[in-house]
Structure to design on (884 residues):
DNA sequence: CATGAATGAGTATTCATTCAT
DNA sequence: AATGAATGAATACTCATTCAT
């Protein structure tokens, strides 16, 4: 089952999938909308329609629940990335980038709450874990891109003198920012990255891929 | 006055600059170190050496105080950017970018608390405001860069076919990410952007500026 | 059966003796180690290896269970006293006292958990019952000693003018305090009634018995 | 002021004596009637007629409040003992004992709640401190009596061969039990140590003092 | 105008008890 | 008869905000 969720106590895992899903959705939504600290177990159980005692039987602490939700979000994202990598193996680098972006937008459309939670992990400062987890995730993202780059370099598609790791980090940041912008719809008013407008999206993708590929320097020079 | 701070009630603005500064410093430091939710008005007034009643007379709510502090942080950043723009007016674009980045690192070194507050604003997590302020700030950042680009295009330094606004947004994002990474020192372990190591920093700057200028596509093609 | 235990619902009494004993041991141990309030039915059922529902079928409430356990502890103590009385029937009073004390220490060594529960009953603190049960127990203890005294008086061993009931109460208190001290090992540091040190114990016994027999007044007077 | 109470935060100590007293009485009564664990801060503030926040401003934690109350009770008892010792300096030992007992009964009449708290300290197991405090208090009680005995021995009033420390402990226990019995009125029904009945009390005192002085052995022997 | 004591709704978490299976 | 998931009132404690002095 796509949304299944191997976390929490055995008690939780033995719940009916419907109930698991109800609790899970409530939790994701609570954390996504309020952040860790502001999320309230009271409000969560109200939303989930279960009793206060139950949530603490399922996940012993608020912290545990949060960890479980996060881990889940991370797993989904990773799985998604892996799949895209597989599907784009043979494509030239620019097209791979494009597919990566497009599939990212799709993921966001399909899993807005998961996305919210994931982005919270990647930034907040509010979340209850040291920076190690963040460092690790950032690095994994960078490495994912570094791998794509490395492969493209070895195919002769890209300049051979580029600093693969640093450029991996930078491109990863670029994509992440774009995805986050798409998610938050910040660009909605003014910069126009409206979700419904596929032409807008196409332009963003093209501009981004072009920037990465060609830079901005005048050819004349 | 440089540190003055047009926010809070009239009552606050009529305070002696010294007292304003004391309160301001205490507030910045409290929010910077603990985030919005965790920041404690109790602890804040203790640090500021004023009474609990007073802070609520100056700023009606915690929220108001936070907004005021943020506004201030934003003003400082803008002022900094304006200054850099003025100082680099005549430089070629790549060098301008480099100076921009370098001065950003410097700003962070000099105003770590302000930076903390500013980055808190730019990531929604814990902070209590709708997206409007964020949209506005992002746009301003983008526009700042779009202006630089536009000028460079008109000088013939850059390709004339680039989408100035979108590219402005993208480059802005790139720089911001780099600055945030520098600030959080996440890259410290593994990607090496250590504050004390100027060679590392030079490499990051060079790689970034080069990426923006030339992209990554193989020359051969 | 020695360990049988006439309490709880009929349901419980119909259980196999082995299961009764398992439950009983778990309960004694839980209450003894944590006191009434802190004792956890959850932890108890885990120890006993039965289900939460069952314990509430056997004993309707935590309170009921505690009462039953206590009753049991009291029965064991009484039975012990009866036995000692029988075995010391023919001894002179001071020796009877001594035997009584020694057998008390022995009982504590052999049944530390039972002792813990029993002492909990005798000190109101945490336990949830009115004073009636305590009054009754104190009286029984006093009467036990009053009987010994009466018999000794009728044999001419003791002064015939003593107030048998009051003295019974006082001596009972003295013995109880000594036993409790032994149990809690409070005297361990400083007053030295260390369990392992039989010389110490002998001295305590001798001093106590002597005090009771001769008092402390100077012979000279 | 007799009931004044040098504990709690400065905030509490600066309260009006009436309010201090109200809070103090509520706290003593809560702990006295329910023991430490069972005492509820909620119920306490309801009784005291103050807000939940206030009690935690006065005493940072439940534990702190309990410690303060206890310390107070102990100080009162000690002070009382010191006074009696002073007033009975010149009396022969048996009369000193009698005065000690009588003044103990009086103290209980006057400070029933303090007594409750003090007795809780001396027993419960429920109270949140290691046994050190208990050991210390027991020892102090014993030493108080040992001192009286030593002095009486040096005056030739008592047998010179008695084990001063052990006997001090035993007599202390005897008096304490008597006082506790008086307090709890356990003896009320059946053994008759009724508070209102001074003849009963006289008999208990006489019997106790006589037992201590002469023991129970027949003169004939 | 400054103060800081008082407030009370809020927090996460526990646990005896119930009841449908 | 046995189970164990669900319950919800209870716990200690926090903290932004108010308001009388």
């Amino acid at each position: 089952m796509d949304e299944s969720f191997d976390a929490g106590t055995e008690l939780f895992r033995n719940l009916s999938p419907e109930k698991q899903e109800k609790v899970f959705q409530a939790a994701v939504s609570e954390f996504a909308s309020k952040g860790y600290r502001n999320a309230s177990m009271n409000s969560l159980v109200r939303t989930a329609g279960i009793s206060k005692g139950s949530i603490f039987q399922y996940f012993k602490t608020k912290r545990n629940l949060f960890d479980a939700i996060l881990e889940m979000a991370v797993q989904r994202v990773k799985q998604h990335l892996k799949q895209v990598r597989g599907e784009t193996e043979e494509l030239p680098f620019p097209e791979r980038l494009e597919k990566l972006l497009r599939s990212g937008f799709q993921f966001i459309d399909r899993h807005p709450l998961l996305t919210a939670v994931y982005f919270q992990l990647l930034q907040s400062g509010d979340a209850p874990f040291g920076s190690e987890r963040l460092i690790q995730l950032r690095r994994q993202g960078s490495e994912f891109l570094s791998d794509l780059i490395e492969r493209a370099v070895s195919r002769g598609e890209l300049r051979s003198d580029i600093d693969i790791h640093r450029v991996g980090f930078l491109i990863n940041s670029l994509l992440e920012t774009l995805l986050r912008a798409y998610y938050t719809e910040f660009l909605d008013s003014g910069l126009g990255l409206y979700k419904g407008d596929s032409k807008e999206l196409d332009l963003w993708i093209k501009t981004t891929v072009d920037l990465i590929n060609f830079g901005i320097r005048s050819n004349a020079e």
